[in-house]
Amino acid sequence: MLGHSMLALPGCLRAAAFWVFVYSYSLLCTCSALLKLLCSILMRPQITFQRISREVTPSCLNDPFLGTHCYVRNKDSGLRFHYVAAGERGKPLMLLLHGFPEFWYSWRHQLREFKSEYRVVALDLRGYGETDAPTNIDSYKLDCIIVDVKEIVDSLGYTKCVLIGHDWGGMIAWLTAICYPEMVTKLIVLSFPHPTVFTEYILRHPSQLIKSGYYFFFQMPWFPELMYTVNDYKVLKDLFTSTDTGIGKHGCRFTEEDMEAYLYIFSQPGALSGPLNHYRNICSCLPLKHHQVTMPTLLLWGENDAFVEVEMAELTRVYVKNYFQLSVLSYASHWIQQDQPELVNTLIWTFLEEDRFEIKD
């Protein structure tokens, strides 16, 4: 297997082999995308590069029942962050970190649900939505993103929070919990394993490597941005609505307005580069020097997740040196908190109300 042979090499050769592999696979994924683009041009030349102008904000993004739109400027980076907050100030903080390609709106069901007991803050990560998007790719290193989370908590006037992350936001949540354990009272991650599990598993399992092909494709400059705009952002639409990757028939399908909200955000000038730059820095703090997660942790996973294999969920247990709960939701897709919001919210409530706490040796 690729992972075993690579791990057997000396350190310097292992690093060189890893990067040769990364860029070779990136080139392969790019060639595949280029072939799809050429086929689209040949079959539908008139609509391939056609895009609808979206200048009016969909009304659902200004729904007052979801919360209040707020902004805060981080002292360290100087960047202005956008977030939507619900619930009274002074209540315990619940901080929500979205995945890709998403933004604060992916937490709309949780903003409504948890505001009775928490100050719920759904953040637009660096480069997303109305948050500032630096043009320098190095500005999206994971170390910078983790500091962003710490500074947001500080700026909101808190020292602790319940931290919840989905997909790429789950990666950030794991790393934040590892780096700032005193700040996270409870950790809840949706649809993403512990980062060490992910990096080791992907090298040993070709099936996961194929499912994560977009990670490698995104290493290429400008072309991934172009591909997302083809046929009026068809790739984006398919991610949430197709039979293979979209929200399942048993879940809460996107309304037309929900889809337009996503299209509005990601069709703005330059709106795709920031999110993709996150992936272009995925190796900036991997492999991890520290692995242990020391707070109670809940991991939620969709049985029909098209992007991350469920076997990684159970493997994550090894790295949580405290109470660990895993729930795999039947029929749920990757977009789990939007797919089955009532069940997800119930599982989160149950976990938050438990007082179990145990440190493992």
TrEMBL record:
The chain crosses the membrane at residues 20-43. Residues 92-337 form the AB hydrolase-1 domain. It comes from Xenopus tropicalis (Western clawed frog). InterPro entries: AB_hydrolase_1, AB_hydrolase_fold, Epox_hydrolase-like. SUPFAM superfamilies: alpha/beta-Hydrolases (SSF53474). This is Epoxide hydrolase 4. It holds the Pfam family Abhydrolase_1. One of its GO terms (molecular function) is hydrolase activity. Gene3D superfamilies: alpha/beta hydrolase. Belongs to the AB hydrolase superfamily. Epoxide hydrolase family. The keyword Transferase does not apply. Keywords: Hydrolase, Membrane, Transmembrane, Transmembrane helix. The keyword Mitochondrion does not apply.
